[in-house]
Design brief:
By secondary structure, the protein is mostly helical. It has four helices and two strands, in the order αββααα.
């Protein structure tokens, strides 16, 4: 799951950079031209494009920002659910670690010490994984804001062009 969220976020960063560059180029061209990459219908002269081509946003290919925004929200929802599950598991392991630590302090036996070490070995990777999930979801929120800004800029330019 960690690899999936990292690769998805990198993909979205690259796509948004391309879209923002295209927007900057379109703004520089003047007020008489419409942005083709944000049209609602994602089509070229030959017919409908594949989903992979639609999302690339390169070389005159169209990208539907509304669909991109919906898909991104869906992905955020998946990763939020994953984050919640890992938070619950991490908290349970932290509580078990605290209880085993208390048992170790109160007891002179070997079992509580071994249990404390075993739970700690499991707790540390859970904390790391939750940390990554939390930070990546926060970055995905920023990506969502960037998509919204692209939509707003596109609608402002379209209104300014009289379309």
């Amino acid at each position: 799951m960690e690899r999936r969220i990292l690769s998805y976020r990198r993909y979205m960063d690259e796509l948004l950079e391309k879209l923002e560059k295209a927007q900057a180029l379109k703004k520089g061209e003047g007020a008489g031209k419409e942005k083709s990459w944000t049209t609602p219908a994602i089509r070229n002269e030959e017919g409908q494009k594949s989903e992979r081509e639609e999302r690339k946003g390169e070389g005159g290919r169209n990208v539907d920002l509304e669909e991109l925004k919906k898909e991104h929200l869906t992905q955020i929802g998946f990763f939020q659910h994953e984050r919640l599950i890992h938070l619950i598991v991490t908290v349970v392991f932290a509580l078990m670690e605290m209880l085993s630590l208390i048992m170790t302090i109160m007891s002179d036996e070997l079992f509580p010490i071994i249990l404390t070490i075993l739970i700690l070995v499991l707790l540390l990777p859970y904390i790391r994984h939750y940390y990554i999930l939390e930070n990546e979801v926060q970055k995905m929120y920023a990506q969502y804001d960037r998509i919204s800004q692209l939509q707003n800029c596109n609608s402002d330019v379209a209104r300014g062009n009289g379309t």
